[in-house]
Amino acid sequence: MVRRAAEEIGERVSCDARYIGRVESGEIRCPNYAYERVFRHMFPGRTLTDLGFVPRSAVRGRAARRTSRETRREVREADRPYRSPAVPIQPQNPYHPHEDHQDDEESDVLRRAFMTRGGVTVAAASLGPLGLALDASAAPRPTYRADARDADAVEEAVRRIRLLDDRHGADGLYRRAAAPLRAAYALLDAGATRQATADRLYSGVGELAISVGWLAHDSGRFDDARSHYAEALATARMTGDPALEAHAFCNTAFLARDAGRPREAVRAAQAAQRVGRGLGSARLMSLLALREAGGWAGLADRAGCEQALARAQALFERGPSDADPEWMSFYGEAELEGLEAQCWSALGDWSRAARHARRAAQLQDPHFARNIALYTAELADDLARGGHPDEAAAAGMRVLDLLGEVQSSRIQTMLAGTARVLLPHRRESGVSAFLERHAGCLRTA
After folding, report:
1. 14 and 111 assigned to the same domain
2. Contact 254/266 with Cβ under 8 angstroms?
3. What pLDDT digit, counting tens, does each position of 131-162 carry?
């Protein structure tokens, strides 16, 4: 595996069983530059410490020969039994670089895992930043099977990704979310101790794929999002999970609308409704009707849009229930108003769109900072296109205030569009201030 990766990038390394043994034992604390380039090629985005080695700065200039006391300690650690999966790690700010706080024992485990099973185990070892802290030592065992703790960890990773997205948006989070997803798929490949655990794993991995897909979607990586949603849909159909299938179709409809494929959005939303009818959640069906309405609006079909909006409103008024999926925690009156605003905006009814967008921003729980920024950006754009430049500039300023803690390509794209619409009004003081500040943000981005 190492040799093949080296050939791909034109490196010459003589990786054999002896070299692997030296890595596993800790004799090679830090690889040479050639091996480092190969390892970085095999695992993009991973650092040497992620792979279980020590930083190059820690070994440069030191004596190559260590004391027999150090060697004995490493041998003892190499003989220790494997540990069970670790408890989840607390989430970190997605904009802070990952900090490595590994002791020597953890590095030894990572090195053994890396050389034994490669990508799967390194991915599993890198899940801490999002709460999915599966132990890297678990995967290398040939007899390892996932248990309930692994299923718990996958589900917790989904919750933490959603929490961080609500607060900060997707741009700073997407790349970090890829490692938990890779490791979760590795758990599926390993198999589970019980069927109930396997069912939970498949459902959890599907939800994780949708969550990562949404991060790609919101950060403008539509092809990546489409791939993740398709993976979730395939998982749902293989396991006969209608709740997961409805969720995958729901997000596929939303993506299709944003990607300029409104007819696909309608079809996906209708498919989601067919699957979701038996789940007993009126709120889910309300959201799916809104997804359909968005597709009809993109097709400029006002009648179809209005019918779907009326259905969404009626279903929403039935209230929440125990059958509502956990992932729908974001869907309240504010989201209903915000999605309706997007429909009227697509139909060119700027005053009605602005009214709903304003109400959405007012109703939104402060916890959902990203959504407040989104609804306010929608409001700014609707006001600008509706002939209210001063009000639009004021709303745009509020969005700029929020962009210090929220990173979303969707919101930034909307704000850039608003700025273009406001350019003819740049002589007005409020508009001028907004345009200058927006341009300054672009220069420092």
Report:
1. yes
2. no
3. 444 443 444 445 678 888 888 888 888 888 87
Residues 159 and 111 placed together within one structural domain of the fold = no
Q: Which of 97, 115, 133 is the last residue of a domain?
A: 115
| Residue 279 domain-assigned (yes or no) | no
* pLDDT tens profile 247-297: 999 999 999 999 999 999 999 999 999 999 999 999 999 999 999 999 999
CA distance 2 to 14: 9
Cα separation, 268 vs 285, in Å, equals 13
Please check whether residue 161 is in contact with residue 91, taking contact to mean a CB–CB distance below 8 angstroms: no
In a domain, 258, yes or no: no
The last residue of one of the domains, among 194, 217, 240, is: 217
Q: Which domain holds residue 165?
A: 118-217
Domain shared by 34 and 126, yes or no = no
Average pLDDT over residues 163-168: 66
Phi and psi (nearest 5°) for 13?
-130, 145
Together in a domain, 57 and 123: no
pLDDT per position as a tens digit, 227-243: 999 999 999 999 999 99
Q: Judge whether 270 lies within some domain.
A: no
pLDDT at 1 over 60: yes
The domain tally of the chain equals 3
Q: SS3 for the chain, per residue? A: CHHHHHHHCCCCCCCCHHHHHHHHHCCCCCCCHHHHHHHHHHCCCCCCCCCCCCCHHHHCCCCCCCCHHHHHHHHHHHCCCCCCCCCCCCCCCCCCCCCCCCCHHHHHHHHHHHHHHCHHHHHHHCCHHHCCCCCCCCCCCCCCCECHHHHHHHHHHHHHHHHHHHHHCCCCCHHHHHHHHHHHHHHHHHCECCHHHHHHHHHHHHHHHHHHHHHHHHCCCHHHHHHHHHHHHHHHHHHCCHHHHHHHHHHHHHHHHHCCCHHHHHHHHHHHHHHHHHHCCHHHHHHHHHHHHHHHHHCCCHHHHHHHHHHHHHHHCCCCCCCCCHHHHHCCHHHHHHHHHHHHHHCCCHHHHHHHHHHHHHHCCCCCHHHHHHHHHHHHHHHHHCCCHHHHHHHHHHHHHHCCCCCCHHHHHHHHHHHHHHHHHCCCHHHHHHHHHHHHHHHHC
